[in-house]
């Protein structure tokens, strides 16, 4: 059997740290970057006699996420203890949700691939549940010991579990990216993967094409970049296929990805698998969420990326590709929408072009975020309007953009005036130049009259040169054409 | 009653049992399990399990930071600590 | 200062003595401490005495009283079961695991009683992590019964019961998970109440079994229990299982009562009186208690608790299961005992917990781990929780035909130290009458109702519907208005 007869099956479990100020079960701060153990209170350290109390903000974010993925929000969900021993787990159990999670049965549709080859894929989300994060182990040697920092212990997490619906690393990355965008969009998670706010576990298995039963899967834990996700899955799939083709079997195991070697290696086999002894946490009562709260959260949800993308294509006339790019983040989408609001929907496309073109390039080069851009949406709108109404040419607009970017000028019209970028569009003003060009280039005139379109461009070029670029090329073209054909 | 896998249970509970104490604990466990096995005789199909005497929903806390830095007081309780960290024997991943 | 006031006074009398300046709080505290010291060797009721802070608190109470500032229990000496966290004072749970542990905060109950002006003289002995019915499983040695120091004091709150019975303090706190306030109260001839689940915050109580644990009080009378209970009740936002209800003035209800119980239907569960192991003297005492209640106007009603016998197996699945998880935090990492020698991390865990915990605690952790483990969860844990609901249903139905249930507190009186050592189950069977109230979350109280032929105290139990503490206290108070078993003193 060769490789093309194999089908890859992937499911992702994503842990998203929530943007609450305090922890899920205690009032300690969740702010990143504090000195070790300065944000671990008695509850987080699991002192005897301490008890958990649930953070409303964590629940509200779970509801938001549930609505954004069109899932069922459980009216009643239960916290359960997941029991195991590890030094970064102070209580010796993690408070999580097991049989009755807060969110169930959602889905998101993602775009996979680009251009001609792009297609849509719906990935079902089995469940999302609330749980607490563990602390951190610092493995740098403290004379043979490991240091434990409990600042992170108790930070709220939403564990988002997909169905094994993905069939390639590409699909998995597309899904992960889309979820990443979504959680940031609705403000439930900051998505900072370097800081560990968004962690991905991938369950990977292979099976012969056509087979409906799932192959044995291995779980790749703690991938914190999309690149590693891609690499890890690719390696794992190759490894599994090679193993099976050589007559071996895949053992269920938990593996880690080593980015330096680009390989996955076993961390824990099924035999070592934990028996978590889940049972409902008796220190917490069932979480009850009523319809009124759900509707309140729903009413406060911003327009979701998927819906906005549709609107951009249908109402603004953008390509799906551009719509996708503009909805990569809420900041970018908001920027675009502000520009269009100022410029008018008819100028949506030019706004998009400027934002995805010139602005994006500049932001990239200088490494700043769109929120810090010196060019504001109203600037883009003004720029686009001035090009549209013929005041400036596209080349002139680029000069205006430069001035705005460097801070040389703050107002589009002022810059146009200061730099003398205004195109000459007035017919009477152009007429003499056009006549002069016609007179000075009889050959081109003859060629054009003979049917050569290109000859017109040459004439336009002459007028542009004579006007030192100040003439409005469209007006010039029209005038020439009229004079020569009339 | 099936034989108790005491080694597995003790491992899950992270309690070391010496061979002598293991025998005594096994006997004790068997007695206790014989006692609780009486539960099996009851047909409780359809009965909802009761994890709690309270039939109330979980109360929610406002999302505000109410705890300040208590590292000094808490770390002082630790058997081994250094540089603001709890120290444990090296964890092998 | 003579210790006599402590031995014979009720809280009301003590408060009056303090108010009338016949004694000062400081003198009371001194007397309590002195008596505690002098009886410590014979009874071993205390794990830690805190003379300095006690005297300081007593002096402060005297100061406040001089300034006209008097609270509910101003200047009253008391003791806390060493399961309640006390800031800066070691809180051991009677375990080697926490022998040197001093929490940086106070339990809700401790805060409340301090706010009420009470003066804690120290931490009382108990069964390790509250697991036991005799106070024999303590790292600090068994607590002995003031009525006969060759016998157990009852458990797990043995130290608190003994301290009250011996006239060291008029009131002490305890916790009750399967009878641990009521049963030692019965063994020691004093009164103890376990309130409805959720009445008293569990914040700062070292957890044993979270869905069963409740703080309670032990004192010399229902009246005193009423006062102390009011002081510790109330909503605590730090405990998710704390009831948001107004505090009830139980003592006021008792003060307004006329001492009669006309119209009270007192249920006697036939299954309880058919239990095999019940002592003849105990049966007799409880039956005559029933007749005394009748003479007070109560009507005796036959009720049934069909699954009474299943309460023990259900409890001994649920409590150990919860305990196995609650005690996982004792791992030598962040506080408490750590084994001195170990090969690696897991070895550290295994040795720390093997050395830090006593045998009974280990037994229950192992049982709890077993019943939650893969393959056994449904048959044991889930089944037990279903039984729990059925048992709670039984009580609810029984309360359709009665207002309170009367039962023995324990099937026997205090047995000799070491007598029930061989088979842990023997000790477990002691809980037959008390466990149901914990499973169902119901309030229950034990008060003295006689003595056996060896002169050992016998207690009888009243169990009430959810939130019916006042009804319980009123009944017991009426009983104590007509009898004087609760006034008897041990021959110390």
Characteristics:
heterotrimer; A: 486 residues; alpha+beta; Arc Repressor Mutant, subunit A; three-stranded antiparallel sheet; 40% helix; B: 93 residues; two-stranded antiparallel ribbon; 32% helix; flat
Would you write up a description of this structure?
The complex is a heterotrimer of chains A (486), B (93) and C (492). With 486 residues, chain A is α+β, with helices and mostly antiparallel strands. Chain A folds into 3 domains: 275 residues, no CATH class; 117 residues, no CATH class; 59 residues, Arc Repressor Mutant, subunit A, CATH 1.10.10. Helix content of chain A is 40%, strand content 22%. Chain A is built from 15 helices and 17 strands. Chain A has a 9-stranded mixed sheet. In chain A, strand 7 and strand 8 form a beta hairpin. By secondary structure, chain B is an alpha+beta fold. In chain B, 32% of the residues lie in helices and 10% in strands. A two-stranded antiparallel ribbon of chain B has the order 2-3. The longest helix of chain B has 18 residues. Chain C is globular. The longest helix of chain C is centred in the C-terminal third of the chain and has 24 residues. With 492 residues, chain C is α/β, with parallel strands linked by helices. The mean pLDDT of chain C is 95. The relative contact order of chain C is 0.14. At the B-C interface, helix 1, helix 2 and strand 3 of B face helix 12, helix 13, helix 14, helix 15 and helix 16 of C. Strand 2 of chain A pairs parallel with strand 1 of chain B, so a sheet runs across the interface.
Task: List the SSEs and their pairings.
The complex is a heterotrimer of chains A (486), B (93) and C (492).
Chain A: E1 6-17, E2 54-55, H1 56-68, E3 72-73, E4 76-77, E5 79-83, E6 93-97, E7 103-112, E8 119-132, E9 136-142, E10 145-149, E11 156-162, H2 169-185, E12 198-208, E13 218-223, H3 226-245, E14 253-258, E15 263-269, E16 279-280, E17 287-288, H4 291-300, H5 305-314, H6 320-326, H7 330-343, H8 348-366, H9 377-388, H10 394-406, H11 412-419, H12 427-440, H13 442-449, H14 453-466, H15 473-485
Parallel strand pairs in A: 13-14
Antiparallel strand pairs in A: 1-11, 1-12, 3-7, 4-17, 5-6, 5-16, 7-8, 8-11, 9-10, 12-13, 14-15
Helix pairs in contact in A: 2-3, 5-6, 7-8, 7-9, 9-10, 12-14, 12-15, 13-14, 14-15
Chain B: H1 6-12, H2 19-36, E1 60-61, H3 71-75, E2 81-82, E3 85-89
Antiparallel strand pairs in B: 2-3
Chain C: H1 4-8, H2 11-19, H3 25-43, E1 46-49, H4 51-66, E2 77-81, H5 108-115, E3 119-124, E4 144-145, E5 148-152, H6 158-165, E6 171-176, H7 182-188, E7 191-194, E8 214-219, H8 222-232, H9 250-256, E9 265-269, H10 270-273, H11 280-295, E10 299-303, H12 311-326, H13 345-356, H14 359-372, H15 378-401, E11 404-408, H16 424-428, H17 435-440, E12 444-451, E13 457-463, H18 469-482
Parallel strand pairs in C: 2-3, 2-6, 9-10, 9-11
Antiparallel strand pairs in C: 1-3, 4-5, 6-8, 7-8, 7-12, 11-13, 12-13
């Amino acid at each position: 059997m060769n490789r093309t007869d194999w089908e890859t099956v992937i499911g992702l479990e994503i842990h998203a740290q929530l943007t609450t100020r305090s922890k899920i079960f205690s009032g300690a701060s969740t702010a990143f970057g504090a000195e070790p153990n300065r944000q671990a209170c008695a509850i987080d350290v699991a002192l005897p006699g301490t008890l958990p109390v649930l953070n409303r903000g964590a629940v509200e974010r779970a509801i938001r996420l549930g609505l954004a993925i069109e899932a069922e929000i459980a009216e009643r969900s239960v916290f359960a203890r997941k029991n195991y021993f590890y030094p970064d787990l102070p209580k010796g159990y993690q408070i999580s949700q097991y049989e009755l999670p807060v969110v169930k049965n959602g889905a998101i549709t993602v775009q996979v691939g680009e251009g001609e080859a792009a297609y849509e894929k719906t990935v079902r989300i089995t469940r999302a549940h609330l749980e607490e994060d563990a602390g951190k182990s610092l493995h740098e040697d403290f004379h043979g010991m490991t240091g434990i920092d409990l600042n992170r212990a108790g930070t709220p997490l939403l564990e988002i579990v997909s169905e094994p619906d993905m069939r390639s690393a590409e699909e998995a990355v597309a899904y992960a990216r889309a979820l990443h965008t979504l959680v940031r969009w609705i403000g439930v998670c900051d998505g900072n993967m370097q800081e560990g706010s968004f962690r991905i576990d991938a369950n990977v298995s292979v099976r012969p094409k056509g087979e409906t039963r799932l192959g044995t899967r291995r779980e790749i834990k703690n991938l914190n970049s999309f690149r590693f996700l891609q690499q890890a899955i690719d390696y794992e799939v190759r490894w599994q296929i090679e193993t099976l083709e050589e007559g071996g079997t895949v053992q269920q195991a938990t593996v880690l990805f080593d980015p330096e070697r680009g390989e996955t290696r076993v961390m824990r086999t099924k035999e070592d698998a934990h028996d978590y002894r889940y049972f409902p946490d008796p220190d917490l009562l069932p979480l009850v969420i009523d319809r009124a709260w759900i509707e309140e959260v729903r009413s406060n949800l911003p327009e979701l990326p998927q819906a906005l993308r549709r609107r951009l294509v249908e109402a603004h006339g953008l390509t799906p590709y551009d719509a996708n790019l503009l909805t990569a983040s809420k900041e970018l989408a908001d920027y675009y929408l502000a520009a269009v609001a100022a410029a008018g929907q008819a100028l949506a496309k030019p706004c998009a072009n400027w934002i995805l073109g010139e602005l994006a390039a500049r932001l990239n080069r200088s490494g700043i975020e769109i929120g810090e851009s010196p060019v504001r949406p109203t600037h883009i709108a003004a720029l686009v309007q001035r090009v549209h109404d013929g005041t400036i040419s596209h080349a002139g607009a680029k000069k205006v953009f430069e001035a705005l970017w460097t801070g040389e000028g703050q107002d589009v019209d002022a810059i146009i005036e200061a730099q003398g970028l205004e195109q000459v569009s007035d017919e009477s003003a152009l007429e003499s130049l056009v006549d002069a060009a016609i007179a000075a280039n009889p050959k081109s005139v003859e060629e054009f009259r003979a049917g050569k379109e290109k000859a017109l461009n040459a004439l336009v070029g002459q007028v542009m040169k004579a006007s030192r670029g100040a003439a409005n090329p469209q007006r010039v073209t029209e005038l020439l054409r009229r004079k020569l054909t009339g | 009653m099936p034989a108790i896998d005491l080694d597995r249970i003790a491992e899950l509970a992270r309690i070391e049992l010496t061979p002598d104490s293991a025998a005594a604990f096994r006997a004790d466990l068997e007695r206790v399990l014989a006692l609780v096995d009486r539960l099996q005789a009851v047909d409780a199909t359809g009965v909802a399990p009761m994890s709690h005497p309270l039939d109330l929903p979980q109360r929610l806390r406002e999302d505000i930071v109410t705890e300040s830095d208590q590292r000094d007081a808490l770390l002082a309780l630790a058997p081994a600590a250094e540089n603001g960290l709890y120290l444990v024997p090296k964890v092998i991943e | 200062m003579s210790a006599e006031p402590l031995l014979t006074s009720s809280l009301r009398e003590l408060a009056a003595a303090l108010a009338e300046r016949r004694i000062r709080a400081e003198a009371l505290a001194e007397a309590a401490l002195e008596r505690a010291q002098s009886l410590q060797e014979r009874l071993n009721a205390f794990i830690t005495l805190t003379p300095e802070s006690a005297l300081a608190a007593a002096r402060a109470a005297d100061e406040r009283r001089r300034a006209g500032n008097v609270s509910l229990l101003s200047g009253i000496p008391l003791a806390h079961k060493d399961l309640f966290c006390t800031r800066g004072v070691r809180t051991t749970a009677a375990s080697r695991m926490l022998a040197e542990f001093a929490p940086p905060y106070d339990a809700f109950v401790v805060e409340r009683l301090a706010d009420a002006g009470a003066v804690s003289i120290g931490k009382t002995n108990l069964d390790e992590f509250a697991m036991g019915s005799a106070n024999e499983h303590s790292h600090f040695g068994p607590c002995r019964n003031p009525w006969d120091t060759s016998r157990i004091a009852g458990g797990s709150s043995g130290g608190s019961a003994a301290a009250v019975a011996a006239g060291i303090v008029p009131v002490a706190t305890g916790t009750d998970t399967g009878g641990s306030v009521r049963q030692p109260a019965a063994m020691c001839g004093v009164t103890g109440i376990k309130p409805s689940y959720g009445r008293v915050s569990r914040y700062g109580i070292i957890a044993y079994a979270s869905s069963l644990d409740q703080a309670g009080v032990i004192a010399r009378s229902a009246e005193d229990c009423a006062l102390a209970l009011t002081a510790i009740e109330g909503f605590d936002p730090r405990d998710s299982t704390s009831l948001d209800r107004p505090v009830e003035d139980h003592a006021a209800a008792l003060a307004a009562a006329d001492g009669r119980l006309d119209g009270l239907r007192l249920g006697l569960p036939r299954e309880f009186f058919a239990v095999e192991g019940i002592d003849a003297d105990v049966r007799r005492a409880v039956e005559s208690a029933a007749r005394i209640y009748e003479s007070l106007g109560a009507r005796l009603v036959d009720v049934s608790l069909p699954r009474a016998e299943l309460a023990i197996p259900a409890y001994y699945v649920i409590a150990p299961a919860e305990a196995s998880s609650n005690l996982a935090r004792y791992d030598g990492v962040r506080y408490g005992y750590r084994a001195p020698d170990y090969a690696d991390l897991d070895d550290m865990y295994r040795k720390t917990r093997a050395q830090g915990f006593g045998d009974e605690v280990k037994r229950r952790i192992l049982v709890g781990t077993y019943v939650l483990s893969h393959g056994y969860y449904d048959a044991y844990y889930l089944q037990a929780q279903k039984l729990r609901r059925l048992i709670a249903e039984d009580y609810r139905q029984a309360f359709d035909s009665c207002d309170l249930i009367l039962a023995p507190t324990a099937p026997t009186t205090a047995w000799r130290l070491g007598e029930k050592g061989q088979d842990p189950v023997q000790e477990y069977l002691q809980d037959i009458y008390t466990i149901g109230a914990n499973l169902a979350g119901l309030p229950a109280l034990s008060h003295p109702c006689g003595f056996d032929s060896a002169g050992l105290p016998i207690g009888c139990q009243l169990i009430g519907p959810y939130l019916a503490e006042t009804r319980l206290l009123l009944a017991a108070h009426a009983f104590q208005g007509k009898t004087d078993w609760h006034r008897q003193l041990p021959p110390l």
